[in-house]
Amino acid sequence: MRSLIVEDDPRIAADLQRALGSAGFLVELSGDGDDAWFRGGTENYDLIVLDLGLPRLDGLTVLKRWRAEGCDTPVLVLTARGAWTERVEGIDAGADDYLPKPFRMEELVARARALVRRSGGRGASVQDLGRLSVDMNRMTATLDGAAQHLTPLEFRLLAYLTLHRDRPVPPTELLEHLYGGDDNKEINALEAIIARLRRKLGPGIIATRRGFGYQVEAEA
Prior knowledge:
The chain has eight helices and eleven strands.
């Protein structure tokens, strides 16, 4: 799950990066409104965590521009502003959730996970696909009731395929969500992870749709 944290306080940004990274997110950082507006509107993220008090371009303006331009990425707004009128303003501008500072990192991670699940039409934290069960909160997977020992990268790929299981996911999209803007990662790296997952999960779980991509095919 690829996320963008927009926060100009380096300490808070580092704390957010650690918390979301530990929860299985691929985290990228932005420290000002202009940069955030460009990246949020041109890159494919699963989640954006947006502080409103930003330099160069304030967060509320950034959010309004994203929504006006058709960016529908889930946005979790962070702000030190506590007045209920300002919360309403953020929601009206297009925020999907709102968390005033100070906050507990555990709550932020829970809200972030929920937003990603809901954006894919998957509300439950445990995704049950028959033989395969994927726990998005614990970052674990079981097959026929047996726990599977997955690396963080393997789990991130499996989780993304699970959340988007109604369609084949193109390799380029998977690379974006596994590695972000790292242009050095090639299709061979993705194929290696897919091969490792298939060895661990066995045949019939991850299918190749030639010309389209990969799709989870556990029994319903």
